[in-house]
Amino acid sequence: MVTIEHRNAKVKLAEQVYEPAEDSYLLADTALDLVKDCMSILEIGTGTGFVSAVLKANRNISLIATEISPIAAKCAKSNGIDVIRTDMFAGLIEKKQFDVVLFNPPYLPTSEDEKVPGWLNYAFDGGVDGRKDVEPFMQQVSNYLKPHGFILMLISSLTGIDEVIEKMRKYSFNAQVIASEKCSFEKLVIIMASATNNE
Amino acid sequence: MKKDLMDILACPICKGDLVLNIEKEDANEVISGTLYCSVCNEYYPIEEGIPNMLPPDLRE
């Protein structure tokens, strides 16, 4: 079994589960700069559990993660993550209880004939515009995020950075790019977003 | 799953509370069992320590 190590975390990989790449490392490192001890964290679509495992290895936090793929959920569990198999927020109680919600969505624009077989498609397929999951995420996230909490979302230049920020504003979030990294054919960015009207 | 996860879980259909039924557990967590929603009359399985909160038609 292949294991990778990053910043005190050891993470086992599995077949048919997205292998942590530049995007995962950028989200993990950026989140680690912002997540403090005692925070309550939710990661949506955790995959191997890599980002969550890096946070747990370095911070004293409470963290849960969701994952739709049964293979990835099992992998994340084997990496010590408290994982719930569900579609995004579906199996979670509607309570504004998380300080931070992390999301590395499937962000690649994907046409019908570009889909990959099996559960792995959930890791890549962002729909035709790459933003398929951004809309339902933004629609729901306020029900789970504390009023002063924030979102960290990783997307790519291929996803349309301005379009995603615009969408976040539509849902009354202040959003800005706080980290970025150039990769071969794309630029990866982390968007940090917090609610504008903190009741 | 750890038992305190019950504070976070809800029925994915009606978002209501669930009743935990434990079949197997160890010192740390529930390994298998079910989560029952009385409003929807639906059971969600816990397998290998992972609660499966997918609606029945999407489960596998």
Automatic annotation (TrEMBL), chain A:
In alphabetical order, the GO MF annotations are: nucleic acid binding; protein methyltransferase activity; S-adenosylmethionine-dependent methyltransferase activity
Q: Which Pfam families match?
A: MTS
Sorted UniProt keywords: Methyltransferase, S-adenosyl-L-methionine, Transferase
| A GO biological-process term | methylation
What does the entry list under GO cellular component?
eRF1 methyltransferase complex
Transmembrane region(s): none
Annotated Methyltransferase small domain residues = 39-108
Concerning its family, UniProt says: Belongs to the eukaryotic/archaeal PrmC-related family.
What's the name of the protein? Release factor glutamine methyltransferase
Naturally occurring in which organism (per UniProt): Methanolobus vulcani
From TrEMBL, chain B:
| PANTHER family, sorted | PROTEIN PREY, MITOCHONDRIAL, ZGC:162634
Which InterPro entries does the UniProt record give?
Trm112-like
- By its UniProt entry, which Pfam families does this protein fall under? Trm112p
Lineage, top-rank taxon, reads Archaea
Organism, scientific name? Methanolobus vulcani
Under NCBIfam families, the record lists:
Trm112_arch (NF038101)
- UniProt-recorded name of the protein: Trm112 family protein
